Amino acid sequence: MNTLDFDKKPEDTRVVVAMSGGVDSSVVAGLLKQQGYDVLGITLQLYDHGAAVHRAGSCCAGQDIDDARRVCETLGIPHYVLDYEKRFRETVINPFAEAYAMGETPVPCVACNQTVKFADLLATAQELGADALATGHYIRSSANPTADNPNRRALYRPIDSDRDQSWFLFATTQEQIDYLRFPLGGMSKAQVRELAEEMGLVVAKKADSQDICFVPAGKYADIINKVKPNAALAGDIVHMDGRVLGRHEGIVHYTIGQRKGLGVATGEPLYVVYLDARSRRVIVGPKEALDTHRVYLRDMNWLGDSSLESDAREGFACFAKVRSTRPPTPATLHVDERGVYVDLSIGEAGVAPGQACVLYSAPGADARVYGGGFIERSERAEEAEASLKQLLAQPVAA
Ligand SMILES: Nc1ncnc2c1ncn2[C@@H]1O[C@H](COP(=O)(O)OP(=O)(O)OP(=O)(O)O)[C@@H](O)[C@H]1O
């Protein structure tokens, strides 16, 4: 068995490496080449790097493509660049803008993994006769053969919890997981940088890419205005107790949990509690009103044991992560006539629809990923929930 769990010699195993031009995927290519695999590098050009959406250091700009090319030259492996701009715009950027206009806080990296990376690029790798597609994501997968499928794999959190990307990967299907390989899951970022130095890669000291690759300096409203110019319609800023506190220039400028930049002075600290796209109201309230105890999920991707969905009918104890930066906390998963929902034993502040809720077997680095879903809506502490419902039921002045 070789290190990628194939029953053949590395030189007989072809692997496509998804190369962003960053240090992580460059080291993946370097490691696999060192181990003797037949490695091909592919970089996807995801948007026009001359356009307003360009941000230096992001995962798909011109400099990055050039860096990936230079890494492949150093390693002596073939490198291809594929133009995915149109597809990326249609499946990632446009839905991102539309979700914001609906009052959601989307996770475009999940959409990107679901479409361009693990659907299109994966298909290209298969067409090129590759046995696997490897990426620089920090997540672990290991062989988990079943009676009907000897190639089945299971997903786990990575060793380096600070870099854990499992939250972004919850929607990866079982078939995709079986074909993918994540060689960095057992390494720390520090080790990866050291390896890059040892391999003499030009990207060894390159800064990490941050946030959303196509959003320059966190200015997502600019992208939304460009894609959906009518999304930024003015509306009222309303307190949960019904008081109209001011006006805003479009709900796309707000996210749930936001405190700064509300432009209302009431003497009390206020947070965005809800975005009502229908009435274009930004609803604000005290911090306690953000405290979320239950999240309803849509588009569930069930991984792990096949009995999970039926076990959840009885209430299934697990650990849930409702934001990318937090460790998983104890939770109970339910499936009944109300849908799929998760009760969080420790309330989370400011959970936004459109974000992900990912489920695990344990709180630590050894946790298996059970899958997850997108948050459709959430329920807050009883009092806050009641006053929000009352407010939303009120007719809105034209
Ligand atoms: N434009 C791209 N073309 C091909 N593969 C990509 C591209 N962008 C990202 N990837 C793949 O997805 C992985 C995770 O992407 P992410 O944007 O999270 O990068 P990262 O964690 O900064 O890693 P890296 O250091 O490799 O850029 C990358 O390691 C790479 O394998």
TrEMBL record:
Pfam family for this entry, one: tRNA_Me_trans_C
Alphabetical GO biological process terms: tRNA wobble position uridine thiolation
CDD domains: MnmA_TRMU-like
Active site: C112, C213
Residue ranges, annotated region (Interaction with tRNA): 163-165
Catalyzed reaction equations: S-sulfanyl-L-cysteinyl-[protein] + uridine(34) in tRNA + AH2 + ATP = 2-thiouridine(34) in tRNA + L-cysteinyl-[protein] + A + AMP + diphosphate + H(+)
Site (Interaction with tRNA): H137, Q355
UniProt domain tRNA-specific 2-thiouridylase MnmA-like C-terminal: residue ranges: 293-375
EC number(s) on file: 2.8.1.13
Chain positions recorded as ATP binding sites: A18, M19, S20, G21, G22, V23, D24, S25, L44, G136
One Gene Ontology molecular-function label: tRNA binding
Subcellular location: Cytoplasm
Keyword line: ATP-binding, Cytoplasm, Disulfide bond, Nucleotide-binding, RNA-binding, Transferase, tRNA processing, tRNA-binding
GO cellular component: cytoplasm
Top-level class of the enzyme under EC nomenclature: transferase
Domain of life: Bacteria
All copies of domain tRNA-specific 2-thiouridylase MnmA-like central, residue ranges: 231-285
Entries under SUPFAM superfamilies matching the protein: Adenine nucleotide alpha hydrolases-like
Family named by the database record: Belongs to the MnmA/TRMU family.
Function: Catalyzes the 2-thiolation of uridine at the wobble position (U34) of tRNA, leading to the formation of s(2)U34.
NCBIfam families cross-referenced by the UniProt entry: PRK00143.1, trmU
Protein name: tRNA-specific 2-thiouridylase MnmA
GN (gene name): mnmA
